[in-house]
Fold:
Amino acid sequence: MAKKAMCAKVPKSQGEKTINLAKKLKIVDNNLDIQSDEKFVYIPLISQPSGVTLKALREQVAHLEVSTCVFSERKKGQASLVELLEDRLSPYLLASLPRAIDFVGDIAIVEIPPELGAYGNVIGEAILKANRNVHTVLAKAGTVTGTYRLRKFIVIAGESRTETVHKEYGCQYYVNLGKVYFSPRLSYEHRRVASLVKEGEVVIDMFAGVGPFSIQIAKTREDVGVYAIDLNRHAVEYLKKNIRLNRVVGKVHPILGDARKVVNERLSGIADRVIMNLPEKAMDYVDVACKATKPTDGIIHFYSFIDASNSMENIKRSFIEAVEKIGRKVENISTRCVRETAPSEHQVVLDAKIH
Structure:
């Protein structure tokens, strides 16, 4: 049943942060389901926030709007994670429960704080019970590291596996979280970039992974050629499977290898658009991206991280300098915050036209 209620409307990149903050302020209506669309998250509120509460929200969340929305009522018997565990954990431990859960296909991924380490399996079983479509719960067992950007996981409930099929904007992806990098939090970004591609373009996805950018582009446009490069052989194996699964054979061309070598040997000067989703090392490949674009002009989607010591302006300045260093010019550039990756740290993208 639908119900009209007050809501906090925020961009998707700020959704997780706002939900956590609203729950701490105890203003979320837990009888209604949180809603979302391609751009925004809508959080049901128990009432119009007071001036003090609204100020607290807006101090930490940019672009927050308060309005009324129509929400679906939570189904009877659909207990929250806190409700399922309130008889098993003390109030202190309940307050430490992870609020953010990532879902990749039928796998849930959660970060268990140290004080809850002994209760991992209990939390995992509760997540299974609260999310009937989930069959495996993985706990993060380290940070994203290494050339392939992999993370270690521990199975804390359900089936012992890391492979699944993830669905996103009409596309499906075979993913093995133990062998390849994949983030469901980039789903809107995959769609956004695909919507910018024009018919007839040649696109180079320099760090393609299992293909979420490349395949979304090929599914969105009829006349397009996408060269999807990755150094991880497991990622390329899954990329090939996903090309067949999504019926974009002949439109997406999988290539195993280092992007620098591949561009120098095969793809120099052919791209209308280059995607550089490797935030940790993208700055080292700006010269390669420029070499890949056509001599006249081209678009580069450059991803990086910002934090208290490295601002958006610093990233923008460094990118422009790297482009100019090899004799190209940035004609225009726009910036966007993609998602929060840690407290005071965000992944950002520069959409730059060079000539």
Observations:
- The chain has a mean pLDDT of 92.
- The chain has three domains: 2-72, 81-161, 183-354.
